[in-house]
Sequence to fold (742 residues):
Amino acid sequence: MADEHKGEEQWSGRLGFLLAAVGSAIGLGAVWRFPYLVYEHGGGAFLIPYLIALFVSGIPLMILELGVGKTLRTSAPIAFMRIHKRMGWVGWMTLMLGFVIIAYYTVVLAWSLVYMFASPGLDWGTDTQAFFDNEVVHLSPGPGQLGGIGLSVLAMVLVTWLIIYLIIVKGIKMVSKVVMLTVPAPYILMLILAFFSLRLEGADVGLEYYLRPNFEKLVDPEVWLAAFAQIFFALSLSTGVMIAYSSRLERKADVVNNSYIVSFLDVGFAFFAGIVVFATLGYMAAAQGVPMEDAVIGGPGLTYVAYPTAISLLPSANALFGVLFFLMLFTLGIDSAFATIEAVALGLKDAGFNYKRMSIISSAGGAFLAILFATGGGYHWLWIVDNFFNEIGIVTMGLLECYIVGHLYSTKKFVREVNETSELKIGRFWVVCIKYVTPLILVVMLIATLIKTAISGFQGYPAWAIFIGGLFPIVLIAFIAVRMSRRWGPRD
Amino acid sequence: MGPAGLSFGAVAVATTASFILYGGTIYFVSIAMKWRLDLLLQGIGLGAMVRTWRRGFHGQVAVFGVVLLVVLSVEAVAIGPGAGPDGGVPFGGGGRWVEMSDTLTLDGYATEGAAPMNATPELGGVVPTSVNLSLQWVDNDAREPPAGPLDAAPRNRPDTLRLSVKGPGAVSGTVEAANDPSTRLGEVELGPFKAQQGRGLEGIVVTVECLEAGDVTGRFLTYVADGGNDYVLFFEYTYQEWIPGQNATD
Fold:
């Protein structure tokens, strides 16, 4: 096998790679999705299906992606093409889906910056929902109306993309340095926030709601499906990042242990984030005299509506808490953002393009797309695209990855190659998970999404919007991916 | 309730998850960094644990299980039985949580214009999970005035009492009313207040205040000067009690 990166830059050390991979895996979902899912699906009892999902699906897929990158020494498109000449499009599609996802993801990061600058004056006032809708998002009545765009959000979107460009333009070496700051930062900020929030009155009630196990929920299949879906999305799998990053690892790198560390740090952070989130929500419920059930919320409503309310209600240090919280959100998300765009640039580089030029093009293209999502109407498109790109696009990519490695590549060979440099070995369990268990779960997830969409649509949006924002672009991207794989093959 | 106000169930989940996630992270990082945790453990007299761990998967599960069990047992003893069904189970022995209810009656006298009187009942260490308050009084100074030539029809002015409660979370309220002049009966109610799940209504303070004790007056004279009123406070509450034994019933 030719070494794609002979003489080129690789990760200078294991720490740089690990931090970059962890930073890429941990995203905003750790704060706004995971804690809410735990609360909704049986509190502490939800951790049982979640940890099972981690071991039978999350970690095996992580090993698969890191293993593919490390052994084939190239990004997803070329790697899959090397396994099977007709499968390069899966890699291209993975990168393109990731690219679009990051385009709207940076809008959410821009909101965090807007809120960070609004924190010193608690500019959101008492009606935090109105502030979010009118001052930040400039929400339009529906996806049919583009609406306006807030100058502050526009500026922050551009700042975010400039940061992404500056980080990725110098390649892996620069990323190795940046992640030394951006990956520990949210952990440290979260620790400070924990110190603040756990001392608040009502924090224990919030934690009780978060952690108290309700084992009866475990008989509900939806709880298990939610656990597997969350693991899949939480680890940022099937976006091409892990394959691109591990392709720049040195040959003797330990794939299995790296996979465990990245996965455990990701899930551990989300669990800890839940403690901080629910302690704060517990305080908010107590301060407002409302039942905890009325205070719990997930998604952006948690971070940009409920949290500002809680920050305003704090007995002291409101501004500091606000700045730290929104800075934490930004640092949490920026790693995932630049990792995905870098994976795109590396994928194009491995297909023979100039890396620097590709960094500029992908950053500029991403910024342009992000501006569309930053409009009042773009907000609606953001959620439509988010739902279908993840639940159909990314899940399908995960399924295809399992098929390519599990059935088109020799699993025996893959296991041997991975075990050669790994202290902890994989074996029959991993093979069964990748060939049968994970694909089966992903198929169930896919069918469940399709049935749910066919029966009840998506959040009341019209069918044309679901088609234009969700289904059509996925098919279009698949078409472009097939064309790209025919045109651009491996350099050697 | 445990020391931090958390039930044993919640603490056990936090402990187990932390053991798996953070313990796991440390273990895998130690492999990556080639830290010799085994030597460290042997150095502090835990060589047997290291030897068992080295026996492979079953040994590792055994060590993990035993250590976790020891930590959870210590927590169970430290945290105690908890405040209710969600507060976990007292350490050792079977049984079940049963909701009990009781009503306490407190008599008192509220003086007009005086500071609110503390009428918080003593519950003997029981933490209520719901509370309902009822304050009743009879205008006891509304005696019939002596018959006189000047005021043929003296009027008795009603007494106005206020009942207030303050406690954790949403437990807060004030209600006041004057008694019915014809029947002389007065009554106000507050509640019911229910504790949020997994938490008790600790630290409730109840006060009674006489805002106005209406005198018995005629056209020209005050026949009876009212300085306050007796009252009866009914403190209805529910709480959780651990009934030992497998077949305990309500």
